[in-house]
Fold each of these.
Amino acid sequence: QHPFVLVSGPCVLEDLDMTLHIAESLKKLTDQLGIDFVFKASYDKANRTSVSSFRGPGIDAGLEMLAKVKSEFNVPVVSDVHDATQVAAASQVLDIIQIPAFLCRQTDLLVAAGNSGRVVNVKKGQFQAPWDMKHVVGKVASTGNEQILLTERGASFGYNNLVVDMRSLLIMRELGKPVIFDATHAVQLPGGADGASAGQREYVAALSRAAVAIGIDGLFWEVHPDPECARCDGPNSLYLKDLQPILESLLAVDAVVKNR
Amino acid sequence: QHPFVLVSGPCVLEDLDMTLHIAESLKKLTDQLGIDFVFKASYDKANRTSVSSFRGPGIDAGLEMLAKVKSEFNVPVVSDVHDATQVAAASQVLDIIQIPAFLCRQTDLLVAAGNSGRVVNVKKGQFQAPWDMKHVVGKVASTGNEQILLTERGASFGYNNLVVDMRSLLIMRELGKPVIFDATHAVQLPGGADGASAGQREYVAALSRAAVAIGIDGLFWEVHPDPECARCDGPNSLYLKDLQPILESLLAVDAVVKNR
Amino acid sequence: QHPFVLVSGPCVLEDLDMTLHIAESLKKLTDQLGIDFVFKASYDKANRTSVSSFRGPGIDAGLEMLAKVKSEFNVPVVSDVHDATQVAAASQVLDIIQIPAFLCRQTDLLVAAGNSGRVVNVKKGQFQAPWDMKHVVGKVASTGNEQILLTERGASFGYNNLVVDMRSLLIMRELGKPVIFDATHAVQLPGGADGASAGQREYVAALSRAAVAIGIDGLFWEVHPDPECARCDGPNSLYLKDLQPILESLLAVDAVVKNR
Amino acid sequence: QHPFVLVSGPCVLEDLDMTLHIAESLKKLTDQLGIDFVFKASYDKANRTSVSSFRGPGIDAGLEMLAKVKSEFNVPVVSDVHDATQVAAASQVLDIIQIPAFLCRQTDLLVAAGNSGRVVNVKKGQFQAPWDMKHVVGKVASTGNEQILLTERGASFGYNNLVVDMRSLLIMRELGKPVIFDATHAVQLPGGADGASAGQREYVAALSRAAVAIGIDGLFWEVHPDPECARCDGPNSLYLKDLQPILESLLAVDAVVKNR
């Protein structure tokens, strides 16, 4: 029974210096706390609310930045892919290929990700019942690749709001795959701000505690040194400087739940 | 910072012997674990799915049974009232007057409960936004009675299903009143069985851990020595014999969250 | 195959003059259009969002006003009852006893209404699956009274919003009872204004056309000569002066759907 | 004020003979009724529930079949594209490029579709508020292409169910683009059968009437000569032989609503 893994980083790659700074901070903190760490950042935000939103450095420059994080700090890295043509390049660098929630039923993308031989992390769609993730697992596993992670990030609840159905963590775990809770996307208010998604950072710590208390294998957080200036998902990102006490409390809950 | 209070008992009063047996077991267990205990049971199930369902002993016989529980074990008791005319009699016996979720906006009932001088526990309606409970609090408090408890028991999520929005525990707490999580009603599948509500007992312990991890003042559980034979809400009631290890784990989480 | 019946009037009884004025206007208009008419108004709004909201003249004065409407214009009248104790007095005057949506599962109220011998109109709860209305029908019909109407008024869809699932009109019709569409409550935004429900009057005509196109037995509208000054539900009430062209269009759709 | 356009055909291209048979039948019927007709069929079902489900002939063979339909019957054709790389080939044949609902926020796909110069039909995601389609329109229109259609196909309503919020037809119309109602996908029960989506064909005609009564520019139906044997979406497809009386009734409603 291991503590939860922390999958964390900025929403989108901004510049190399900041990327390395965030990775280094997270690596130090997780080493100190005895938590396994995976660095996460997107090279391209392919489904921003508005066409004029910042999308990131693109796949080539982005993968280069992620490769630097990987070599410099010796941490695994994860990022999103958006169609099957990106998988070959991405799997050269990424340890974990992530399938965005809206794309969690796109067969070609899931199969390409499976064929890469990398671990595949699929985010459950906001429209998807947790038990129906078994078919998603089946699509990836049809390639012979059973290294699959499943991530909860909230379900549609009326308009411009998501709800976390904590039962889904248990239902997905019964599919035999590790389950991750994406606490920072779960508090998004999709499209809730004009031309961008709003978010509720104030609930991230509490929902994370709830998920850890249910029992999870990993926790996914978007973090930023200065979320007010983040180029994507600032309203739901955590302040880098605030993480330590939250993680300590989560580890204590995790230890209770996993009888460590 | 106290541990959560346990509000517990059978869904409906069946017979006196069983009532006393359940109360005694719960009293012993909570004393041993250092948890405050309130005995809960309904004298009348006024909104069963079907007209032919068992409703309980009625208000007079029911209050008598509750009075015996109270005197025999020296525990406070709580039960539902269903219209303003019941409040006078009920408040002779009950320490806490409970307002059912469907009735959480009925002004006369809330005002009558407030005027009783007893503590009033209002269950949030399945149709009600958590921030709108401020108006419910206002109705009770208009009587000068500020002893109000607010209970989360799930929100409508499509048909025949409820979801617990864990954010609601935090939102209601901001109203300045103690918040209770009703874990056994939260796993009901309303009307999901033909002529009765189905339930998912298997999620009660995990959802309770999640709510305790968020931080709550009380936990509400329907329990029964033999839920398969319970005359109401069996599918979501916990087995009396199973409570101890669950409560111990919850207390450990509660201690972490409340820094005890 | 008859045209739909119009059930209409102000949300709440304000004063007698206005009440008679509205009733007379509606009676004239429906006579002219060949539509059967039932006058509707509440004597008590028992579940307003806030304790300080206007509630109406109360049962005695209210029933007196409704009796005047009935005798003066020779129209049937309908109003809400809120607990079983009101049914005896109400059924002296009312042709149709209406059960509010939040109370649609309260067994005693349904049975009392059934026993009155009057027609009983039950509004489907915002939390209730349409197929589960069969148990509601069963509660009323347990008294031997089969004169039951079922009304759709929207289902909970996230917080502070309702959605009309038009399938419900068909599902409830299969229960063998006439189905009414309450278009003005269906566009409420419950609790959406601070301390009162907001509403979307602009969608009433279109949703009414949709329901009539599905095929309904009755249409329920709250109307007011001056909704901006209405003491309840103004934002979703129709202007009395606007009804004629809307009704004419609805009658034309109704004739198509019912092959008249 | 024109009658609604009918966009119709089988869910997926099966074989050429059946394709031509369906197209010919629909062309004859719509000519006879004076309805404009667009033939619809998918060359690839890219997000079936299960990896082993039939997906169609693929893009090359599929576009060839669609080209034959177009030349033989002189009708415009529409089909889905699933990533930006497909748009160039697809726009050689298709008159309308369709963006699937799950992909309605994928910027690259929307921009590629816009750049094709073809009409772009975007299905509103099951997770998307209707007002947020303005940003989707903005993505396509950023290419200078303003020929955009918006399609309603239901919103997530709990698990394994969709609800049609008829208000969305009006809200999307305010964006200044023609609005289509996809009645056969709106009655899907996503993932509701084991390994495939179930559907409720019995509600298609009534929901279509409701949408036409609201006022729409187009109606989208999947049809099949033998839905029980259809290789995709059989449970929600209409029988080809049943269309005429339904369309006649819809035309009559359409004429009332549009004052023709």
Amino acid sequence: MRLSQFHIATVKEVPADAEIVSHRLMLRAGMIRKLAAGIYTWTPLGLRVLRRVERVVREEMDRAGAIEMLMPSIQPKELWEETGRWQKFGGQLLKIRDRKDGEFCYGPTHEEVVTDFARNELKSYRQLPVNFYQIQTKFRDEIRPRFGVMRAREFLMKDAYSFHLTAECMDRTYRVMYDAYARIFTRLGLKFRAVQADTGAIGGNASHEFHVLADSGEDAIAFASGSDYAANVELAEALAPAAPRPAPAAALERVPTPGVRTVEDVSAHFGIPAQRVLKTILVRGREGLVALCLRGDHELNEIKAAKLPELPGESVLAGEAEIVAATGTRPGFIGPVGLPEAIPVIVDRSAAALADFVCGGNADDTHYRGANWERDARVTRVADLRKVVEGDPSPDGRGTLSIARGIEVGHVFQLGQKYAEAMGASVLDEQGKARVMYMGCYGIGVSRIVAAAIEQNHDDAGIVWPEAMAPWRAAICVINPKNDAKVAEAAEGLYRDLLARGVDVALDDRGLRPGAMFADIELIGIPHRVVVSERGVAAGTFEYRRRDESESRALDRAAVLALFEATAAAS
Amino acid sequence: MRLSQFHIATVKEVPADAEIVSHRLMLRAGMIRKLAAGIYTWTPLGLRVLRRVERVVREEMDRAGAIEMLMPSIQPKELWEETGRWQKFGGQLLKIRDRKDGEFCYGPTHEEVVTDFARNELKSYRQLPVNFYQIQTKFRDEIRPRFGVMRAREFLMKDAYSFHLTAECMDRTYRVMYDAYARIFTRLGLKFRAVQADTGAIGGNASHEFHVLADSGEDAIAFASGSDYAANVELAEALAPAAPRPAPAAALERVPTPGVRTVEDVSAHFGIPAQRVLKTILVRGREGLVALCLRGDHELNEIKAAKLPELPGESVLAGEAEIVAATGTRPGFIGPVGLPEAIPVIVDRSAAALADFVCGGNADDTHYRGANWERDARVTRVADLRKVVEGDPSPDGRGTLSIARGIEVGHVFQLGQKYAEAMGASVLDEQGKARVMYMGCYGIGVSRIVAAAIEQNHDDAGIVWPEAMAPWRAAICVINPKNDAKVAEAAEGLYRDLLARGVDVALDDRGLRPGAMFADIELIGIPHRVVVSERGVAAGTFEYRRRDESESRALDRAAVLALFEATAAAS
């Protein structure tokens, strides 16, 4: 591509509402333009990247045996009423009335439409399993669209839906899709993790989210050093310490601690690390307050707490008045020793392994030292209550956990019979009996991947594309070709050579000055840059630089071509 | 592709509302399924065809220097108010309110959005000309959606918009697009014509519609035998006869003709052909009635008549009472001889070349024989008033006209400054002066082409795809492979051989009986069919048949492969 024949429109200033780096860089590079809140035009440059992602997704879906189709964006209300989602989906559903007052929505997802298709098309177990997918524009009327295409209202999605006679078959296709997703993100050159997800709301059997790792990610992910285990930090299990609890060594001692309320205060006051301090949190239970005990250096995981049988399905901290009424003591001095019998004491696994610990004295300005479970304090139940931390053992026993932040770009989900049951989608089995189908669904945010990749791959000069996503793999920058026919000739020659080798190369023949040209090529993130200048041509060399390296090298023609042959073979 | 791994779902019965053959065949072949009125799901089979069309369109647009981008489907009301089309576009515009009560529409076309994009992106004449295109889903809320994807509400369109400093530049790109469209339809293997279109409403300079020729087409097209001239029949010019009008030979004679009113009656009564009879039609003019005179075998073209200065911009026939009041004579007996002076006599070019003709006598039950212009009858004006007919000379002087029916699938249009003016889209010229841009727009109905191709290419057994549009170029039908390992082996071998040669081939391994399998393959229209049977394998041959031929041939392996090498080279 000759850039003089293309539309490159980089800009210096971006609107203040571009809060995250991918949004700013996509605007600055001229990949997207805002049409309305959460609604973006993909410029020619942006579309090249979007299509690269789309192509890899399509190839891997095809390879995994999924069959592409195309469902409409406009969907009739009647189908959504069959599953009850016309109401339940909430405000994100963009509802529409046509000229005949028929009610429709702009599809935010296609479970209803594909299940309707399947119940009409699939009659026999012989047609199963089958996995339909599409790459198609969706709309979700986000209440606060932001972050550019990261959380846009109109977006491009790949969604797949598989149909099965049995749960086992659903599980097999689920694994095939899991593997396909791993190949997709690997081919795109992204650092990612497949993360166990909560299946609570929909009630399926298994679910994984695929996250692109980036410091700016909204979700914290715990992953194992020794396996592919990964889970949202909120969901990762904290194992009990391997070593048994030591026997008590110290005697219980009541210590006055005026004004010493926080773990930090206690730790300093007693001259011990926070992990030897026990903190006690009072929350509202089904019947009165409940005490949750954790090590001073650990944080309560409210999702885990909410699942305790003593709690009403959510974890709500008790207020100061409630605490004083139930214990006669102000917050900061509560502990398990001598706590009123009516309050259950739930102890985190790590806290349960402590001996000779310090805890609140259940009286204002008082603590206990040398406290021990059983001997001094009741244990109603030991449970996993805390958030995992860096260095915790992995729940699968293989290595330790690291914590990273991630951006969700894919989701695989076993839907079970939820939709097929609601919409009466069944097939005849081998015995001629009608059986409700099992379903899986598998989504990828195609347009979101573009933004996530930038969050992961950028520097001060701009985007640093992985090869597979770059708008062009290489750029040839020509310095003052009008002044020197030899320079123009050398650039044209190299351009033709690279094209002939199948390298997707851009010839920057726009006639910009070198500084502006280099800034553009760096900003839009081309992985390989070759500069053709008068001095280089005189020396028989080109100046080559990788986008992710700071140094350039003088290479002759053969060396430049060899470079692309090597990378072509690797990709 | 192994068809056992694909989703083929042909059906026997189609709904009664499938009125045209393409709609019926697309449903029977299982290419589309209706979701709601005018809203269709493209099944895997249908999508394969749609993607073939899309690909050819994309390749030729790229080749013609157009640059692909992707604009949103949801567009804000504010832009449409700038051009006044929020009201003017009418009921086809699907209007939408989002959760914050903002007003939007589902884009039926993108002039507003692209002009907004251009006014922000294009600052200098140096960036011109530029031609942006997209292939994208559109919605028009048709009051009566029908004919399947031929007139659907949600449809796939390629739309392109070019921007220019001058009208001349616009004209050059217009020609480039015209040629690209011709290549697209030629590559798709369709019989088509580029037809001069009426530019009245939008007021641009030039406009052509591209029509796929098919007997079921809604539009009648006149095209020349000796050139690429083609026009909608309503717009094709009827030339004056080449020979001069003969001198009068007969005397004017008044003849009683009781009850002889129609051209057919007159022709029979006088024993002369219809082309020697003059028919006179009275229409409402700006001031009183106007007489339009045509040859008895010609039809009035109301679009041409409406443009006469004597008419008020439309052509409305006078009622019987008006005629009697103005002439004292009942309809059927009106003629130019002795017509009241107040009524202008506009004579069609062909009628003006008549001598010694028969016409109405301006008295009930009376005609004139031997009538002649000038000598007997006034001529206010000679004009082109009639519809062209088969065999007329071509307006460009090259050969004669034929008439065919067509389906509009593409449209190229010079918009001029209409949108750029309304939306303030200008660039700086070489003198640094702001100048409003000129625009062209170029649309192709991608999904409509699929239906139009079927209207043109089908037989009693189903669709007969042109090679470039077929879901697969070839099908291998295997007869009873489970009973005979050699048959299975021969089929697999041929399948691999064809794939290795880059032939897009389907192996029908679904295990159907031969009759059902052949019916499916014919219905879905695969151009080449190779049958692998026990008898054939024993004889070392395959049974080959082209979809558009009635006879099959026994060919050995080498001959089958040679066949596809030949067609590959041709395509």
